[in-house]
Amino acid sequence: MTETSDFLRARHGRFGSWVPRLVFAGATCAVATSMVVAGLGRAVAQQVQQGPGMTAPLPGAPGSEPPAKEEPPTPAEQAIDEAKARIARLKSCSATLEQSVNMLDQKFSVRGSYVKAPGNKLYFRLTLVGLADTQATSLQVCDGETYWRYQSVLDQPMISKLSIKPVMERIESPDMDPKVKEYFHNEMGFAGPETLLAGLRRQFRFEQEKEESRLGDKAVWILRGTWKTRQGLADRPGRQLPAVGLLPPYIPSDATLYLGKDDGWPYKLVLVGRAPTQVEDTRKVGPDGRKIGSLSSIKPVTPSSITLVYSDVKLNPSVNADEFAFNPPSTAAVEDTTERLVRDLDQALAASADRKKEEASKKEGPLLNQSLDVPTPPGQPSVAQPPQ
Question: Which of 115, 157, 302, 373 could bridge 94 with an S-S bond, Cβ 3.0-4.6 Å?
Fold first, then answer.
């Protein structure tokens, strides 16, 4: 799978960089969290992307390691899998969402709306709220022919577009590597909230029994999970987390999912870190090797808390085509990424085809497993066989 990993890594550095994610190794929905890193501001964004616990790539994304062998799903996990399949089958849906974040001494929220319709039609808008010195907006729009991506951080807009037809022809090709196909569906927002459920299943183990409850007027299952892998997680650049012990408080150790009983929609998700059992000495070290300041100056670490709530959810509604129209500002520079993306996808298809040929040849084995006796032509002396 070297070609696939190289391809995804290249795309993540270009196409994927338009939608920076709150990584947590993909535990939260790629769509719902796309503005988090962008909205934290330069200092916090650097902490999130390069600092403690945030050095690991997303599972299945560029640079990630192969997943560990999966255990049989629990009843709670089976419910999540069934819900994911139901949402994926929806022809259209719409919802508003709000994500509240308390992480790395920052508090803010992300608000948005999501609409999906047949024919690769999409409208997805997110706005950062609560950071006085940072303004950020992200918008993904597709009318079925042209896919637009708009992002504005600190009043610096970036706009790109691509033609859907040649891109989707290649992505939906039976020869396309499934990982590349999944990556682009997620990146382009077409996958929707089922991406959230897939991420939860990868990173959390839901072993507790389902709990029947209500969330407002909705009958829901409450499902509780715990973080299940430390693969690739580091407490600082270059140093992996210990194999045992509590996770750092900024990593969400526990997940609580409120899943619609009747429709499978993930109406609410709460991710929380665990408070450390002892206070970590965060004081700086002086030239003499001693800690600077008194013990009372040590700041307690507040565990991260992330809450995602969907509201006004509509399943298979009739959708007005005008909702998917987008007209970029006349003064804005627009980058057309179609040609470059098509070229990269063609390379991925060629690599996949070569890999399939190689695998087929290995299965077939040698054409012959024994020699053939060739009759001697008339009038020619026979060739003596060598002794056995």
Answer: 115
Q: What is the pLDDT of residues 78-119, one digit of tens each?
A: 999 999 999 989 999 999 999 998 887 788 888 999 999 999
Q: Flag whether 379 is in a domain.
A: no
Domain CATH number, residue 124: 2.50.20.10
At 164 the pLDDT is: 92
Spans of the chain, pLDDT less than 50: 1, 7-65, 372, 383-388
Residue 37: the pLDDT is 31
Specify the pLDDT at position 2: 53
166: closest CA among 344, 11, 13?
344
31 and 207 Cβ atoms separated by less than 8 Å: no
Please check whether residue 195 lies inside any domain of the structure: yes
User: By residue range, what is the domain housing residue 117?
Assistant: 2-355
Specify the number of domains making up the chain.
Answer: 1
How far apart CA 77 and CA 83 sit, in angstroms, is: 10
In a domain, 252, yes or no: yes
Q: What is the pTM of this model?
A: 0.72
How many angstroms from the chain centroid is the CA of residue 112? 18
pLDDT tens string 369-379: 555 455 555 55
374 is a domain residue: no
